[in-house]
Amino acid sequence: MELDLSPLSLRVYEALASETRLKILEFIGGNKRSVSEIATFLNVSNSITTRHIQQLEDCGILDSERGRGKDRNKKLVYLKVDHIYVTFPVKIYHEYQLYSTNLKLGHFTNFSVTPTCGLATATNAVGQFDEPKYFMDQQRVDADLLWFGAGFVEYTIPNFLKKNETPKLLEISFEIASEFPVSNNFCPSDISIYINEIKVAVYTAPGNFSDTRGRYTPSWWHNHYSQYGLLKHLRVNEFDTGIDGIAHSSVVLSDLNLHDCSFIKIRFAVEADAKNKCGLTLFGKSFGNHDQDILINLYYTK
């Protein structure tokens, strides 16, 4: 589950702001517990316990089912999520000037992918799943969801930087997850990110999430398919390359030779020698939890 600072996340924060409900989550752990078991553990009534459980269900942290056999009349509750991520607002350096590019997922300029793979727009799938040839279908330019098991996609954007402008920070933000047939919340994948053919970072996506529906994922997309990714901010500056403030490599902005190129190439790859090979999924405006495509910001001074 991914949260931010918008009112949409408030129900989750409110549900977690209780010592009693935190004890319930810890007691349930990886098990399925009945209301009476939880009430006994808390030493409170079943009715009070039910109200706490309902609040945790309403915000998507818990789910429930009916028991089987002798427990068929009991409601059994269990954890629906394993991790909760909080995304804070991006820090903007107002003293810098900015070139900004909004990059649609389907506007890749080069690719080589192997199944599982596919593309989807806000309204339909593009061609047939697991057929790489549909990555050249005419509908691919409208794609807001893209996934593959191995290989790469590469994007090319114009470099507007002038000779008298000094680059200070290149930031690329994107919503990303790993890839697994249908979905798998525990499937780490090492995703290599290249800028101008230089590997700047390897990000390990922890899973391909379907524990809750993505906020923007269209209703026609099946609940069991990948629903959302995590919003990542890759930043290359004068000192290193980091993702969400954590250094990932010693590549610095001058290594990218931005003054010597008319275009900037960005590649996302799952490579053959990766330790964790579970593909990748990219989310655009009509899928996932964030109302954006791939956003590239180049901050500079004159």
Strand content: 35-45%
Q: What's the CATH topology name of the largest domain?
A: Jelly Rolls
Distance between the termini: 42 Å
Uncertain stretches: none
Helices and strands: which structural class? mainly beta
Number of domains: 2
The geometry reads as elongated
Query: Which CATH first-tier class of the largest domain would you pick?
Result: Mainly Beta
- Tell me the radius of gyration: 22 Å
If classified by CATH, what would the architecture of the largest domain be?
A: Sandwich
Total helices: the number is 4
Helix coverage percent: 10-25%
Extended strand count: 17
According to CATH, the homologous superfamily of the largest domain is Galactose-binding domain-like
User: In this structure, how is the largest beta sheet organized?
Assistant: 12 strands, antiparallel
Order of helices and strands: EHHEHHEEEEEEEEEEEEEEE
**Mean pLDDT rating:** 94
Structure description:
By secondary structure, this protein is mainly β. The protein folds into two domains: 2-79, Winged helix-like DNA-binding domain superfamily/Winged helix DNA-binding domain (Arc Repressor Mutant, subunit A, Orthogonal Bundle); 90-301, Jelly Rolls (Sandwich), CATH 2.60.120.260. Helix content is 13%, strand content 36%. The chain contains four helices and 17 strands. It has helices spanning 10-16, 19-28, 35-42, 46-58, and strands at 2-3, 33-34, 62-66, 75-79, 85-86, 97-103, 110-120, 145-158, 166-177, 189-195, 198-205, 230-236, 241-243, 246-249, 263-270, 280-283, 294-301. The strands form three sheets. Strands 6, 7, 8, 9, 10, 11, 12, 13, 14, 15, 16 and 17 form a twelve-stranded antiparallel beta sheet that branches. The chain has a three-stranded antiparallel beta sheet with strand order 2-4-3. Helix 3 (35-42) crosses helix 4. The two termini are 42 Å apart. 34% of the residues are buried.
